[in-house]
Design a protein that fits this description.
- Chains A, E: GO terms for molecular function: ATP binding; ATP hydrolysis activity.
- Chains A, E: This is ABC transporter ATP-binding protein.
- The complex is a heteropentamer, with two copies of chain A, one copy of chain B and two copies of chain C.
- Chain A is of the alpha/beta class.
- Among the domains of chain A are: 86 residues, Rossmann fold, CATH 3.40.50; 76 residues, no CATH class.
- Chain A has ten helices and ten strands.
- In chain A, strands 6-7-8-3-9-10 form a six-stranded mixed β-sheet, with helices on both faces. A four-stranded antiparallel β-sheet of chain A has the order 2-1-4-5, with helices on one face.
- In chain A, helix 5 runs parallel beside helix 6 and helix 7 crosses helix 10.
- Chain B is built from 15 helices and ten strands.
- Chain B has a five-stranded mixed β-sheet, sandwiched between helices.
- Chain B is globular.
- In chain C, helix 9 runs antiparallel to helix 11.
- Chain C is mainly α.
- Chain C has two domains: 47 residues; 207 residues, MetI-like fold (Orthogonal Bundle).
- The longest helix of chain C has 43 residues.
- The chains are: A alpha/beta, B alpha/beta, C mainly alpha.
- Chains A and C meet through strand 1 and strand 2 of A and helix 1 of C.
- The complex binds adenosine-5'-triphosphate (2 copies) and magnesium ion (MG) (2 copies).
Chain lengths: 257, 307, 268, 268, 257
């Protein structure tokens, strides 16, 4: 059994007039330190699955176990990063990155020092007393990353964290996130629409089928790509090969509009 | 066929049984007999009524004579002329919260008195009567004068004041409900004054002499009718104007007013009454300047009407 | 169990829970409603509150029935509703036209800006008496009161919305060589349509206020008149009946406008 | 010519044009102001309008000076301002608290929903007389009038803003294990702060209306009283003076709140 | 002299307290049928330059000539496509695509038929009576393209038209736009932040320097890449090469945050 185990997860959204099956029969094992990407058509249930893993939604059936414990309880050791940064605009950067420890009551001097050091590592100096809107998109997303890491989570969930950034910034951030996670040996799940990003960053790519989401196919990223930084990986011939394969597979899933 | 029917727009200061003769004239068709069509509208409060008259929103106003003095004193070029008197005494009563068997005015001393709002005739008459009985409204009792006319009864009913100055029919309602007891009449105490009078702008009267004559005649007819019929008959007649009031109550109120001679029996506003009015206003410190009787009052029309 | 069936069952359960929740809410709402009126009735009968001042539901109910049968309620209600609707349509229309004028001439809008600020801050209610001086104590002043109270705020809100229309829409039209009038017609006005509709909602409330105050000041019919008259003759049953009827019809009108808003904005 | 210099020259030209535009606007504004008062004065002197009803600027100016010297204006103004500020703070505070309560209990908010709709649609002005019955003819009722008129709309607007706080902010906090109270304190309340501040702007206007109407009904001091008293004794100069003073101070208060809004939201 | 000639264009934005120089000394010649990309750091004045070319802004100095005529007048034969689609949400698709001819008064039966045929070509059938919000992002951007083409402009200006789309949709649209423009032999200018997109789609890439924008460097895209569709071009070795060159050049322009 892996570090994170998803066991036969089903989920359906109900409204008065409709039942939307979102996930069917999801079984995944993720090892500690692994970086996995979720790829799939819009609305196939990727965000729903992340919410279930984070314990924010109770699945209709099945369970998610992290390190042998159910993820449904508070303080589950999971960090969640959203598509936009969702920094609190009325808080300074310092208050923003320390909100996690403050909320779960673990804020102390050591954690504070550690978090500020992390901010330094992200090449963000002298922004402690700034407000989020004074920062560029890339800087904000880095701050959000620090905020997520501040509680030292065992598992990181990243829901399209780079999709709102421009292309160059995105490439740079991919490198930064990848190296940071490797340094701290974090386990992470990345949801993305960008096949290239999925290949460049992860060890495994899980392709989901149309709603209700099922795991359609799993692609292992070749060892030689994994050792490269995302930016370098994108220019490796093996990358193009895998890209074409996944592209075709994805094409076959999305219905013509 | 006959003469053309002229429409006269009348603005009354409030809808009150106090003005019973006016409603009788309407209900009995006295105006119609004179060839007038009267279009009656209630403009709540003396200020609004006079405003309606001045801004040509009405041809004739039924309102306290003091307003014509105010208007004149502010320098109107087209003064408002009183031409027919409807009521000749104050129409308010002194109501006590506690039942008092042998009331004397001294008993007001040291008490809280909820009066009418400052600047109006009821307030001035009230203060005049108090002073007449040796009570200084400023020092001998606690005087509340900040409540709008329509809200005085409810303010008293919700616990403000030991005594209150009330119009009918509220005074009678209070007595009936045991909320208070009528202990004196300001009307009986104040003497005859031009309390509510029909008035019109001088320019209007010049242009519509005949209509004013007819109007006054109809009023006089109604005054005689009220005088010669019982309170019960009058109450029956004016009932349509007081749909939501208990007919019994209307009758009580009419008889009370009749007893103290509140309804004028002819439309003449004589000089003595005019002096008394200015006297009362002067006492209250609200008389902007002395105006002689012949400037603001026209008794010719009334005298012609009663012939 | 087959997954299709399972989903259906879960859905049924969900709907059941939902309905139960709805029923519970309805129950509490009814409870509050009944409790309010019964306690009022009881308090009035037992003289805990002054029945003269606070009347009682049963008395109000009786009065309602008499007033309904003799038709006087319908007449008064009709007058007030007419005045309100007129005032509210007038206020919205004039306000929107004024806004269009300001949009059309940036110079004019800059010149009038401080005046708009003053007129907006001014409690229009205080103008009531002046209005009667100017227009006379008649229906016109009451409708004017209902309109005046909403014109300026409509102008400001709609003008702001005109100005805030995404400039890129105008850019699109300008690349096709559109004139200022074409820009207004094709982009500015339709883009502000939702704002205009939603000012309707505010204006309907304001017009009620204006009309009621107008009727307080000068009228011989209408619900505001019934309140003033009730006070005059100390008939609180009449006052409270009028208040309840105002509450009901103001709500209905508001809901009607909201419905209209939803319908119109759906395609907006 | 060197480009730096050229830019500077162009900038100077631009600023010159801008200033000229500003001056032009100020000129027209002043023109309107002066024209309004001179035409008024003239019309009054020439008897084009009834000087009794519409007074004249010179008479108002004289009265202002007498009232300023004898101190009665300051006293009346002070009273009205106090009442308005109290009413407006009370209305905003209570409305916000009510909104917090509704956010806290979704069940309660669902139950109270129809009642809020009715209370919102109801023209609160009509309740004025009832308030005097309940609270007595004193300062309390006037302040209450100033508050009541804004409570419900504040509740609704603030509650809507509470509910519309981006759920992703709450999601962020929930992943850290935040309680409902922490969510409220850290995200919902601060995110709605701009809305609360901007209801202030609406409420200040509403409170003026409430207080003026309250003073119409029961008062012996204040600007509303001055209007009513002026009518009573046919002193329209006094009425218009009061109206002008109300316009000035309502505007000042509104501007003050707007300034506050800008300051507070800058960091928001 | 080329088809489009920009002659010594300067522009400065003024506010009361500041003068923001946006463009300096811009000289460009573009031939008929050419596809040129503008690349450059954020805020370097690319959008400003497009607005000047479209005649929406009067430059402080210099002029833009299209086919020998000044572009400052109405009916200049220029089509402009913005970052988002800016379809009018209250108009149906049909009304939206016909707004151009309607505004400049050329709407007639022939133009209508032609425009509807174009819509068909974009694989958009049966959407004539739909409203924009019923369409997906990619569909909407295609409708916007039809709208721009409806007046049959001689020159097309595209301001980051694909940046709001997800990666797969973007790749597909690039192909579609490229082939459409080739078919109609349109001259076009594309503003983009995506180096790859610039290389894959255009004949020339103009790199702008930091504000005030000047032309920093011009890259000619190799002939063999030009003949490929954008999607194919992205997987050609020559693409990677040019990418690296431009990336480095761009890196050197953007100041470290
Ligand atoms: N709260 C909800 N209530 C009802 N249906 C929902 C809810 N949230 C999501 N859904 C539906 O469930 C399905 C899966 O949604 P989800 O957000 O998980 O998809 P996704 O894969 O993250 O999509 P995207 O790639 O667009 O982010 C969608 O069809 C969506 O409409
Ligand atoms: N209307 C304006 N008034 C004042 N300054 C402006 C105006 N429009 C743009 N600017 C400034 O001019 C510069 C160039 O703006 P422009 O929008 O042309 O840049 P851009 O290259 O399109 O940027 P991006 O890549 O972010 O779209 C920027 O610094 C911007 O702040
Ligand atoms: Mg998602
Ligand atoms: Mg741009």
């Amino acid at each position: 059994m892996g570090f994170l185990t998803l066991n036969d997860i089903h989920h359906t959204y109900f409204t008065k007039t409709s039942a939307t099956p979102a996930l069917r029969n999801i079984n995944i094992d993720i090892k500690e330190g692994e970086f996995v990407s979720f790829l799939g058509p819009s609305g196939c249930g990727k965000t729903t699955l992340l919410s279930i893993i984070a314990g924010l939604i109770q699945p209709a059936r099945g369970c998610a176990m992290l390190d042998g414990k159910n993820t449904g309880k508070t303080d589950s050791g999971i960090g969640y990063m959203l598509q936009q940064d969702y920094l609190f605009p009325w808080k300074t950067i310092e208050e923003n990155i320390l909100i996690g420890p403050k909320i779960n009551g673990t804020l102390n001097h050591a954690i504070k020092t550690e978090t500020l050091a992390l901010l330094d590592k992200m090449e963000l100096r002298n922004v402690l007393t700034s407000y989020p809107k004074q920062l560029s998109g890339g800087m904000r997303q880095r701050v959000a990353l620090v905020r997520t890491l501040a509680t030292n989570p065992k598992l990181l969930l990243l829901d399209e964290p780079f999709s709102a950034l421009d292309y160059q910034t995105k490439l740079k951030l991919e490198n930064l996130v990848s190296s940071t996670f490797k340094t701290f040996n974090k386990t992470a799940i990345l949801v993305t629409h960008d096949i290239g990003e999925a290949i460049a960053m992860s060890n495994r790519v899980l392709l989901f089928s149309q709603r209700p989401g099922k795991i359609h196919k799993i692609f292992d990223v070749p060892e030689n790509l994994r050792l490269l930084s995302p930016f370098e990986a994108r220019h490796h011939p093996a990358y193009n090969e895998l890209f074409q394969v996944i592209w075709k597979e994805l094409e076959s899933l999305e219905p013509e509009e | 066929g006959k003469e053309e029917v002229q429409t006269v727009r009348v603005a009354e200061v409030t809808r009150s049984i106090f003005y019973a003769p006016q409603y009788v004239a309407l209900a009995k068709g006295f105006f119609k007999e004179e060839g007038l069509k009267v279009d009656l509208k209630t403009t709540w409060g003396g200020d609004k009524t006079m405003t309606a008259l001045l801004s040509n929103g009405a041809d004739v106003a039924l309102v306290g004579s003091e307003t014509s003095i105010y208007v004149y004193a502010r320098g109107s070029s087209d003064p408002v002329i009183n031409f027919a008197q409807l009521t000749q005494t104050d129409g308010t009563f002194l109501v006590s919260r506690e039942k008092i068997d042998n009331f004397t005015w001294d008993q007001l001393k040291g008490k809280t008195f909820l009066g009418q709002r400052k600047g109006g005739m009821p307030q001035m008459a009230g203060e005049f009567v108090l002073k007449k009985h040796g009570i200084d409204p400023k020092s001998d009792l606690k005087l509340i004068q900040n409540v709008d006319f329509a809200n005085v009864p409810s303010a008293f009913a919700s616990g403000t004041g030991d005594f209150v100055q009330l119009f009918e029919p509220t005074a009678s309602i209070f007595e009936k409900e045991g909320k208070g007891y009528i202990v004196a009449s300001f009307g009986a105490e104040s003497g005859h004054v031009p309390y509510t009078t029909f008035m019109a702008k001088q320019s209007f009267m010049k242009k519509n002499k005949e209509a004013v004559d007819k109007f006054t005649r109809a009023i006089y007819k109604a005054q005689k009718w009220v005088d010669s019929h019982s309170a019960k008959e009058t109450a029956e007649t004016i009932k349509p104007f007081f749909k939501d009031t208990d007919p019994k109550l209307i009758e009580t109120v009419i008889s009370r007013y009749k007893e103290q001679g509140s309804f004028a029996t002819d439309p003449i506003l004589d000089e003595k009454e005019w002096k008394n009015l200015q006297n009362i206003m002067g006492e209250a410190g609200e008389l902007p300047k002395e105006v002689s009787h012949d400037i603001l009052v026209n008794t010719e029309i009334a005298k012609k009407a009663i012939k | 169990m087959n997954p299709k069936n399972e989903t259906e069952q879960l859905h049924l359960q969900y709907i059941k829970r939902l309905n139960k929740g709805h029923k519970q809410i309805r129950f509490y709402q009814l409870l509050i409603f009944l409790a309010f009126f019964s306690i009022w009735e009881l308090a009035s009968r037992k003289n805990w509150i002054d029945p003269l001042l606070f009347s009682s539901p049963s008395k109000i109910w009786e009065l309602l029935q008499t007033k309904l049968t003799d038709g006087s309620l319908a007449a008064n209600l009709g007058i007030t509703l007419t005045e309100t609707v007129l005032g509210f349509i007038l206020g919205t229309l004039l306000g929107t036209c004024l806004a269009a004028l300001l949009w059309w001439s940036p110079l004019l809008s800059k010149i009038l800006d401080p005046y708009l600020v003053v007129l907006n801050a001014m409690p229009k209610i205080a103008l009531g008496p002046i209005l009667i001086v100017a227009l006379g104590p008649n229906l016109t002043s009451i409708v004017a009161m209902g309109a005046i109270i909403s014109i300026i705020i409509t102008t400001i809100v709609v003008f702001t919305s005109f100005r805030e229309v995404d400039h890129n829409y105008l850019k699109v039209l300008q690349t096709f060589g559109a004139t200022r009038f074409q820009c207004f017609k094709e982009a500015v006005l339709p883009a502000s349509f939702p704002t205009i509709i939603s000012t309707l909602k505010v204006n309907v409330g304001l017009s009620w206020v204006g009309v009621i105050v107008g009727e307080f000041l000068a009228s011989s019919k209408g619900l505001g008149y019934m309140i003033i008259y009730g006070f005059q003759v100390f008939d609180f049953t009449l006052v409270l009946l009028s208040l309840l009827i105002i509450a009901v019809f103001a709500t209905l009108m508001y809901q009607a406008v909201e419905l209209l808003e939803k319908k119109l904005i759906k395609n907006g």
